[in-house]
Fold these 4 entries.
Entry 1:
Amino acid sequence: MTMRSKRPTKKTAAKKGGSRLFHRGDEGRNRVDTEIERQKAARASNNQPFRFYVPVGETRTMIIVDEKPDVFMYEHNTKNPRTGKWNLFTPCIKEWDNCPVCEEHGDSYYAMFLTCIDLTEFETSSGQVVKFSRKLLCVKPSQQKKFIRRAEKVGSLRGSMFECTRDKQMESAIGGDIEFMEVIPEARLRKYVRSWKGNDGTKHTETCHEVFDYESLFEEPTRESLMALVGGTPTPGSAAQTAKDLEEEEEPDDEWEDEEDEEEEEVWEDEEDAEEDGDEEEEVDEEDEEDEEELDEEEEEPEPAPRRRRRPRK
Ligand SMILES: [Zn+2]
């Protein structure tokens, strides 16, 4: 055999120098940066709140809490290699740099972001019923005008309740049919605050009627972090390429699992408990509960939001 080598194959690269456990020498050291960048990008995507979503064949109701549509961003939605689901979101940097995600997966879309209160009731793994939750509403261009027009027409979107129906898989994830229902008065809106207790006893409170701090939700990714995230194709033979070759052999890391584990540990308090605790935050009052129940009846069998669904622990 001649020693003429092409690009090292995955196996030879990984096994050079003995045990495949180890990354050694320059490759090992270079990998540190790649790993940091990849984790950063994955974490940024991971830390985002759940997005409002309508399963095919269902209708879900939500209330917008923003005054007006004000936050737009080019974004990519890619398949999460770990779960096979299309729930890996990342900002696109094409406006000021070559975007590795554009190169790998095609053009990004122009997304409009709003905050909404999702009135879909769901049950946690511990059997607690959650009546509403705050979600990030990502509106694609074809539906943006609907919200912009409404904001222009009535001066504010805040409190606008919409019924979102999705008939087909091909329709928008937030529903193809978005129907305005009514405006929820500010006093009622302010009661959408929920509290729950973590396993360690820590109390968490989410003020669902407050707009997300978008600036802190979306961290500007670097070209390197996006490259690491999508496993782009750097120059053959470069340190980045070698790292990529090696990475392909690895199991995906378990950051996604970490988040789900954290979620699992949350024990939802019911509202009575919260009141006994002397919670100063306002809880949803009877009137609102009745409203929610009416909605539930309309929806027949409320299912837990799919993205909240727990996987059994391994
Ligand atoms: Zn891009």
Entry 2:
Amino acid sequence: MKKFENTNGRYGEFGGMYVAETLVPALKDLEKIFIECMNDKSFMDEFDSLMRDYVGRPSPLYFAERLTEYCGGARIFLKREDLNHTGAHKINNTIGQALIAKRMGKRRLIAETGAGMHGVATATVAARFGMSCDVFMGSEDIRRQSQNAARMKMLGARLISVEIEGGEATLKDAMNEALRNWVATVENTFYVIGTAAGPHPYPAMVKEFQSCIGREAKRQLFEKTGKLPAQVIACVGGGSNAIGLFSPFIEDDGVDLYGAEAAGDGIETGRHAASLNGGSIGVLHGNKTYLLQDENGQILPTHSVSAGLDYPGVGPEHSFLKESGRANYIPIGDSEAVGAFQALCRLEGIIPALESSHAIALAMRNAPKLAREECIIVSLSGRGDKDMDSVEDYLAKKGK
Ligand SMILES: Cc1ncc(COP(=O)(O)O)c(C=O)c1O
């Protein structure tokens, strides 16, 4: 059985538990039960069996032959999280957190969501475990991800549209509102955070539940090619699919870790969501990390064509991996991401999520610089059905 390594919530100077006093006992309790669960065979057996029979794991590692030919250079392999039940990596984490909620005797789940994939994954596990579920979602995200809003309601969740004065009605506002709700309801409510951010123990817990992505991919590539990848690449919103992919490769010095951040219209325009490339160190949603803020610490507006990357912060371990030089975080703009989206549709017959398209775009940039014998693993974190309207709008505005 895997033993969980507790970092006490610190990744160098990043991380921590910067929350209202009322939440501290709940977070300490959660940390204790999480560690217990990680060391409990019956918990892990139930988790593994749901991953296999409900989610459909292991997800395939697919050699993208036509994309590789198109780019030239290294062979590109896609880790197909889009094929999971509910269509993204988010379900790996919500299953884990719902099992912990069950053990803690909490019958109400709350969640924040941006693109809606985490909201759908939380609504799904709430239905599966017979729990009630409230999902907080910015009204702008409900507009651009309307299909996911409908899916959550269909699954029996209550969708709470968030609009805060001066806010942008996207993911940050949804998370603010969910945290506020949790402070008032912590006795009976479990907050299912959707990314590797938030106060300790969430970044550690989400990493643990998402690390199946990297563990499977490492084994699968070895079975196919007998080697380690030269690079692993994932998009970074809060950073959960990326840290899940990176985690078993962090100690492998020969493997370069790449995160693709949302550069929106370009870092220089200020209309972006690239906290690691365009931000500075501060505290947001309970942890110390890189974020987009003004000189008074006020959070700046963000922009990305993909709702799931449209967030002004990033998980604390990514801040640490950036500072230590172990991982590289590259900004990818809207237009390059939409180009990669179209390339994957037409070359491979796979419609990727706009979030994942940022990682595909980075792989398309990097592959030609490597030899044919090298391999790149890309996290295809989700499918793009939810993004049809966003892509059509984007292309129409650009006159394409
Ligand atoms: C398909 C998909 N990929 C990636 C992300 C970004 O989240 P994270 O950085 O936590 O993986 C989202 C968020 O909604 C998503 O829906």
Entry 3:
Amino acid sequence: MVEFTLNGEAQKLDVPPDTPLLWVLRDHLGMTGTRFGCGIGQCGACTVHFNGQPMRSCQLPAAALAGSQITTIEALSHVVQEAWLEHQVPQCGYCQSGQLMAAAALLDRNPRPSDDDIDAWMTNLCRCATYQRIRSAIHAAAATLPEPEPEVPEELDDAGETDGEGEE
Ligand code: FES
Ligand code: FES
């Protein structure tokens, strides 16, 4: 028996402990928004948020779910989705739930990603090669988010002064 929270609702399921979350979602719960692509952790079609982290659900055994918080595409509510529509990102659509879960997690961590940041983070594969549209949509979604706080250099102390190194 494994207990976890899925899209804000408590779940208690009797599944073999080595069952991947992907199949828990699709076969046991009938939630087919999370897609099966490769089954070996490569394509990202099965991406969900596991305790806030984007994870490939085909690689997450049920035994690892105990006490966790899982969010799937069915419950995603993020500015990136509007940008996806405006930029007509989906083509066949197969990879897109995973792409959206990954993109939302990126913007939650980095509200002003560069092209390089996007390319490094978005490792999900798309057979329709929507990569340019994905980039454009992420930039558009980022532009709707508040400016990030400027980073305070480490050498500044709490009072906003230098640590005195090199001063008389
Ligand atoms: S189906 Fe999970 S990474 Fe491809
Ligand atoms: S939109 Fe077709 S595989 Fe990505």
Entry 4:
Amino acid sequence: MSDPTLQDYEAMYAGLLCAWDRGELRGPINHYNHEGGVAVSGFEMRQWLSMQCVKCRYDWSLRKLPYLQEAMQRYWQELSENGLNPKET
Ligand SMILES: [Zn+2]
């Protein structure tokens, strides 16, 4: 079985939102050679992958995705527990 392509990884990001401002993470996916990255089809070296938030331009690393999802859940749960409405922009 071959490694996932960049497009495959990009699809994994689909629907994810920035933990800070709920901005959408949108492609194209950013990547560069990095030993701590992931195997990508078509690249000899492992690639460090990230995608930018369309709002704050924060570059979210693929490696941080589990953290991102947990952080988002905590963030929005705290907001609702405090009776606060998420800020609409
Ligand atoms: Zn953002």
